[in-house]
Design a protein that fits this description.
This protein has 89 residues and is of the alpha+beta class. The chain has one domain (2-87). Helix content is 30%, strand content 35%.
Length: 89
């Protein structure tokens, strides 16, 4: 038996910085810069699925949190989706 759960939390940006919303290429550069600042660039496994989607391995929660904070500062809204899969055999 497999049980799948998914929940989403939307976090609208309360910032008044909406005029300065950065585009995806700038976000990609910002993300790579944060990986470098946190000394995680070399060990991170980053797979860009397309221009707006990335799969990550070996990236700390702290590094990801730093990126989310910077994205919010740039006027981006954040949405968290958590998926849990439970397998009973």
């Amino acid at each position: 038996m497999t049980i799948s759960l998914q929940s989403t939390i939307n976090k609208p940006n309360p910032s008044t910085n909406k005029q300065k919303v950065v585009q995806t290429p700038e976000l990609k550069n910002m993300f790579e810069n944060i990986l470098k600042q946190k000394n995680e660039y070399d060990k991170a496994q980053v797979n860009w699925v397309d221009d707006e989607s990335v799969e990550l391995k070996n990236v700390s929660n702290q590094c990801l949190h730093s990126f989310l904070i910077e994205a919010e500062k740039q006027g981006k809204d954040i949405s968290f989706t958590k998926q849990t899969v439970i397998t009973i055999s």
